[in-house]
Amino acid sequence: MSSSPNDPGNAPASDLEIVVAHQARATLRVGDVFLKIDSEQGNIDAEVEAIELAPVPTPTILWQKPNVLALARVPGTALGRLGEPSPAPASAWAAVGAVVRRLHEAPMPARQGASLVDVAARLDGECEALTRTDLLSPEVLARGGEIARGALRSSRPVFMHGDLQLDHVFVDGDQVTGIIDWSAAGRGDALFDLATLTIGHEEHLDDVLAGYGGGVDRDRVRAWWAVRSLLGIRWLAEHGFDPAAPGAEIDVLKSLA
């Protein structure tokens, strides 16, 4: 689910919008209702399980039918968007950190997230493919790949959201009002969530960790920033997005390198 149409200040509640659509999944907004349509019923079932288990604010499940899940709009506004300054205060970022810690300490869902072996294989493939483009300089690509491999160490699995982009987190002042899009939730690395939340917003990492608490390896958070950036650049470029926009994936890699 995209955050933009979830903002109450946007389009009228009576219209319809295609939020995202690709071969396997689509999300539609009809007024205040989001319809998630998936070709694999197992994906819907896993998302429902995650929403019901998560001890944090989530969208209300309105109904579920074969291959379709209906969710209510969550209140509040997005924590921010990649490439733009966050409108939320430091206290809101800290509150999000505390909520994410609560999620990571909760009993885990049944689904296993992507294995480190799979991530490493994808990373190798993307780095190889990027050498055949002019999207990144050889120096930035090489350094980014080196940093990224620092993330690929085993860790104790937690209840991981799996796609904790800052525009999937909604706040009202310094209160977290909802976390959306649980389609990638499963057992996984806590630092992947923290990195996804703060990528492109390094200035708020301290705020998040103030709420999250200790025991966080900041170098591995940065390594996951590199992983996410390298895995996303070609897809973004091929689907009409600009990974070289200010604050976006290429900027992240340049700052790390």
Automatic annotation (TrEMBL):
It comes from the Bacteria. It holds the Pfam family APH. InterPro entries: AGP_Transferase (IPR051678), Aminoglycoside_PTrfase (IPR002575), Kinase-like_dom_sf (IPR011009). Residues 54-224 form the Aminoglycoside phosphotransferase domain. This is Phosphotransferase.
